[in-house]
């Protein structure tokens, strides 16, 4: 029996603000990400997103490289501030043309475009009215969604709503989607995003009925740190706030009573209108896309133990009385401290499929590393090959277990700028020749993993 379906969507991912650069070209208006590096909270000594990998001026060459690797799909995000100019919804025709040209070029190379509608780059005109923290956000996202579906709906088969909706609530200030001086109720913010997502799904059904649409959160299995029963309570708690609440709302149409009750225990609540309840009930997705980097291990915290750790999308999540993430000494780590857990990937795939029984698409998975460009123009990233080999083997086992999968689009197709750790944390199959502050020539170089992935796609993963 084949390990992967015949028409499996092998490819890779990027996001607009981390990849395109050209923040002042093509009629794009400003976004919070354009100046994230100027915020006091942004780490010192690393680049921001102004130039990124200059994909905006290299897109044809970049698609050619993807085609050479044999990509069947390419997941990218459309930049909201390239499409809409202001809160009146005025359209930037140049932005529409840029993405139409990109999509057509992908089709020319037989690559299926998989479009993320929104990947962190909030336009300034939205931030000025409160960003993701107000109800107004849902109205603005609806205006934007309609423009996307009307302009690209005839071509796009797979839509992804909001990238890592859960990370807006859990690590919003670290990834820059919430300004560090803005006071927020993370759960109300999450609710606005859930409503925005639901409205987009409803609109998609109306405007492009033959398209498929799904969410794209960051999901990972949560292990209890020990066999102490209380650590298992912490596991259930963090599983809920890290994973299930975001998928339950879109797949089941409501929040779990345990979640709502848990908020009350923390002295928090979310305001949900009757109209919103109805929208949330009637916006089921066609598939689940999710990003997977590693697993999480938790214990029941004490006051003292909560004072530690570095926090971001993959580490350090803790909640008083609820759970605290701790290091898993059974797992190796990347150069940037993220744990590596290929078997956890199989576990996560199984849990998600078992719970919702919808087809799954992986929209991110990968290893950030300090790759070195050798004098002969080669990049020997065997650690990346090893990372992918192990994860893809586990994905094959998950499929053999019975998980229904549509595709695998790891992070990232080509080097781009990390959310908060600069360009030196590279993820691509292709090296982009620039440093944190020296833009050099932005030339593209194929890494060893490029050739490895090409071979794997050619064999539809049978050689893994
Ligand atoms: C995901 C995001 O959280 O992880 C990406 O969707 C991000 O935008 C990726 O780049 C890797 O994280 P980081 O922080 O290393 O860039």
Automatic annotation (TrEMBL):
Keyword Disulfide bond: no
Source species, domain of life: Bacteria
GO BP terms in the entry: carbohydrate catabolic process
GO molecular-function term, one example from the UniProt record: beta-glucosidase activity
Keywords per UniProt: Glycosidase, Hydrolase
GO cellular component terms, A-Z: cytosol
InterPro entries per record: GH, GH_1_N_CS, Glyco_hydro_1
Keyword Ion transport: no
Pfam families cross-referenced by the UniProt entry: Glyco_hydro_1 (PF00232)
Family, as annotated: Belongs to the glycosyl hydrolase 1 family.
Annotated PANTHER family: 6-PHOSPHO-BETA-GLUCOSIDASE ASCB-RELATED, GLYCOSYL HYDROLASE
Protein name: Beta-glucosidase
């Amino acid at each position: 029996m084949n390990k992967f379906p015949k028409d499996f969507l092998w490819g890779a991912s990027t996001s607009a603000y981390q990849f395109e650069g050209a923040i002042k070209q093509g009629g794009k208006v400003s976004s919070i990400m354009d100046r994230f590096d100027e915020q006091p909270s942004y780490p010192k000594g690393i680049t921001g997103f102004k130039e990124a990998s200059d994909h905006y001026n290299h897109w044809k060459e970049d698609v050619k490289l993807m085609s050479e690797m044999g990509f069947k799909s390419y997941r990218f995000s459309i930049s909201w501030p390239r499409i809409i100019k202001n809160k009146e919804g005025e359209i930037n025709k140049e932005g529409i043309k840029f993405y139409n040209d990109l999509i057509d070029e992908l089709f020319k190379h037989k690559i299926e475009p998989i479009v993320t509608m929104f990947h962190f780059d909030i336009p300034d005109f939205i931030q000025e009215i409160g960003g993701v923290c107000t109800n107004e956000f849902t109205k603005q996202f609806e205006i934007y969604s309609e423009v996307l579906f009307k302009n690209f709906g005839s071509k796009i088969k797979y839509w992804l709503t909001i990238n890592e909706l859960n990370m807006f609530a859990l690590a919003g200030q670290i990834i820059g989607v919430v300004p560090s001086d803005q006071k927020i109720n993370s759960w109300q913010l999450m609710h606005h995003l859930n409503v925005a997502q639901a409205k987009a799904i409803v609109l998609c059904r109306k405007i492009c009925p033959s398209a498929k649409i799904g969410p794209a959160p960051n999901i990972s299995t949560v292990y209890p740190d020990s066999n102490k029963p209380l650590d298992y309570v912490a596991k259930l708690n963090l599983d809920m706030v890290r994973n299930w609440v975001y998928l339950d709302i879109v797949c089941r149409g409501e929040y779990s009573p345990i979640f709502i009750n848990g908020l009350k225990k923390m002295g928090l609540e979310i305001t949900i209108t009757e109209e919103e309840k109805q929208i949330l009930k009637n916006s089921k997705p066609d598939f689940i896309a999710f990003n997977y980097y590693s697993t999480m291990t938790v214990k029941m915290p004490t006051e003292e133990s909560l004072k530690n750790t570095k926090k971001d999308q993959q580490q350090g999540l803790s909640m008083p009385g609820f759970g605290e993430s701790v290091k898993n000494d059974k797992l190796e780590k990347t150069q940037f401290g993220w744990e590596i857990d290929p078997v956890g990937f199989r576990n996560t795939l199984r849990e998600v499929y078992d719970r919702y029984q919808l087809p799954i698409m992986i929209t991110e998975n990968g290893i950030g590393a300090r790759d070195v460009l050798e004098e002969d123009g080669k990049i020997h990233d065997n650690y990346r090959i090893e990372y992918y080999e192990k994860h893809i083997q586990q994905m094959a086992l998950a499929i053999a277990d019975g998980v229904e999968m549509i595709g695998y689009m790891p992070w990232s197709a080509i080097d781009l700028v990390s959310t908060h750790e600069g360009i030196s944390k590279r993820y691509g199959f292709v090296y982009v020749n620039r440093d944190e502050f020296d833009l050099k020539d932005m030339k593209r170089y194929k890494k060893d993993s490029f050739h490895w992935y090409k071979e794997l796609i050619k064999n539809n993963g049978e050689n893994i």
